[in-house]
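Residues determine shape. We examine one folded chain.
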Amino acid sequence: MTSSWTNVKLSKCAAFQEGYVNPSQSVAHYFGNEIKWLRAVDLNNGFVHDTSRRLTKAGFDSAGKAALLFEPGTLAISKSGTIGRLGILTDYMCGNRAVINVKPLKSICDTRFLFYAMQYHHADIVRLADGSVQKNLYISQLGGVELSLPPLPEQQAIACILGALDDKIELNRRRNKTLEAMARAIFQSWFVDFDPVHAKAAGRQPPGLAPQLAALFPNSFEDSELGPIPKGWRVGTVADVAEINAWTLNRDDEIKEIAYIEISEVLRGEIGNIARHERGSEPSRARRRLRHGDTVVSTVRPDRGSYFLCIDPPPSLIASTGFAVLTPRSGRWAFLHQLTTRTAFGEELGRLADGGAYPAVRPEVITSQPIVMPSEEKVYASFEESVQSLLLKCEAGRRESRALAVLRDTLLPKLISGELRVPDAERIVSWAV
């Protein structure tokens, strides 16, 4: 720390407000689409634009006078469960009892600098939590965390450097979301809603399809056990387009280090931490070997959305046996991925799952799921040509974001502690953004 930096307690540079809005889950009209309801699960150590659930005004008012909105441009931190998750709010939100709102005093503290400073002190914050059955973080404890504050202009410069990396990661995330939505829309149109067939049955040219591609689709439907399907197409199962758990890690496999993926680190295509283990010290569940084009889906709580796509994985990348690894037949990996990661597919597997605290499906349940299959191989080929490029761009974005995150995590403690000065960090970051 340099001589111009000062040590202050967090309570001296921010105000706090606890969340109190916890409407009864049994009252259906408390939940709707009006007010964003912030919970710990919504905190992503980045910008929080939306929440996974919203309330009606009645749900918000159920907290009485304690019902207050957190303002945009403030921070939130989880106080129970997974303690210490952070977020920068970009909109008005009400918080439940698992979150604390942190409102920086902008005359002495930059909001984004405080966000990074609290990340730097994450371990200290977690250690402050109290409780014998379930640990909780209290405002009095949080306010006692001691920070080193440089002058405000230097805070802003540090936040700008780290923020540039996070902004590029966020841009990649948004671009990937758009690309993935495009891929899902094509699959939904061709293989679920059968839009090209409906158009031709009505005597219209299928919108957005070149004539030679439209010609591959029939112009009528026929009955099947799944209801009307395009004429000439058939009902099959996932086993017709995929093998499952085809490659297992063996003792004699020549791998010196295991890069291990656990279910808890995966959500909707994104992989969080990949644990590294010397061969022989890896968890017993590290058994699923992966190939290019594999779709990996969790068999535990399959409706949660724990899945990812393998693109050119290294030999050392191994998944937990809690996953089912689906290997595409005939190179149709984009088709397989879109088929088995649809929300409806996951929800159906969730319905079929059995077990108590951790309901799961057996692999054969996944491969026995019925699907509608085109009769023309060229339909598959055209879909792969259209969608593979979108998914490859997504993977390129994820890899760039992982590299940027490593750089950010390397620079953050050095900048927040004063070990690395702003001009040096700017030179390091300039190539990345």
Notes: The chain is about 35% helix and 20% strand. The chain has a mean pLDDT of 94. The CA atoms of residues 1 and 418 lie 5 Å apart.
